[in-house]
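job 3f2a | input accepted
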Amino acid sequence: MSIQQHPVSVNILGKEYKIICAESEQEDLIASAQQLDHKMRKIRLSGKAAGAERVAVLAALNLSVELQQSKQGSVPEDSSLSQHLNKMYLKIESALKTV
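job 3f2a | predicted structure (99 res):
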């Protein structure tokens, strides 16, 4: 039995991206895109970076640091939360490759 894949539209810094994912992961993808958009807007407004690519890299680094910190914290590697964070990280990385 194959998992149904559907395109999901997300908006990041005013640009629309269509990303295909499993229906069961759509909410996580949308929430991840909103979090990324928020971080990117915050970085852009701070004036610390110019250009969407640089803003995206800085946002991705910030999210990666947060992920690493959560891994080193009290969350066991095999926990569902850790797996969930890793999935979100991979989706964000995938979305940033198109920027």
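job 3f2a | The chain has three helices and two strands.
job 3f2a | closed
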